[in-house]
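Entries read chain and fold; for instance:
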Amino acid sequence: MWSRWFPIGAAAIASALMYLSTILGSLGAILLAFLSPLPLFAIAFGRGWIAGMAAALAGSAIVLFAANGLAALFFLIFCGLPAVLLARQALLARPVNEDQENSDLEWFPPGMLAMWLTAIPATGLLTAVVVTGLQGEGLEAIVRMKVEALFETMGTVLEGPMALPPEQLAAARELIIAVFPGVAGLQWAAMILVNGLLAQGVLARFSANLRPSPDMRDIRLPNWAPFPLAVAALLAAVTDGTLGYLGWNAVPILCLPFFLSGLGLIHALASALTGKRWLLHVTYTLMILSFVLPVLQFVWLLLVFAGLVDHWADLKGRIARNSN
């Protein structure tokens, strides 16, 4: 009994403390908060999603007693539920065939995991649009109010010899207002993805994982994957108001599975072509440098485009067949 509940309690305490570190407000505390889903993923991938659910609820109770109900709710929504949901899906498996002597399993496919990962921030965006719409203000009005207040607060900081001209400052403000929920959703998905990969990697290192680690080269998106993206793009292009705002912010989120598929294509190319490992090094280096050199952000768009092309042309499948 002790050996069963101790890891769950340890994961709950570790995750809650890392989440509560945001109170400190330092850079190290922000990094700890970013990694707060990691213990939940580790217990869920190593002991099952029910153990992950128990740790998430216990962690939420700790945050409730240490902070308040709103913080506990946010912990559950942003850290606990994504870890439990993705672990449940990732641990789904079925026998490869009916042969009782063959214990091989077919695990939940990486492409569908990418779609579930995308569905989490997409559902969050849709919920925010509906809730704020029912309250009367609307999501865009609330974002505008918050961003304009932030710019006013930073007014003196934005002034000086390096300050942008007023028209460029206004354009930057409008761009932030236009895509802030979508970018925030992508950052949420990135936090979930990084913590999930880290947890699975550590467990696999110590042979404590319940399922084999998914391979980027095996990402195959379902046939219907482009339709939500097409609908969002159509809403952004032809409608105004709430629907248009929803479309503008859903597009970057719904590009996520194609970005992951495009990255999988790079992995497939690098593994199929002798001496082409530099493709991986260059791609990941450009992605990291793009955070400090915005001109390099085209690489993210190229990977999304590669994922879209691969979806119809099955490039990863062709590479795999030619390699055999």
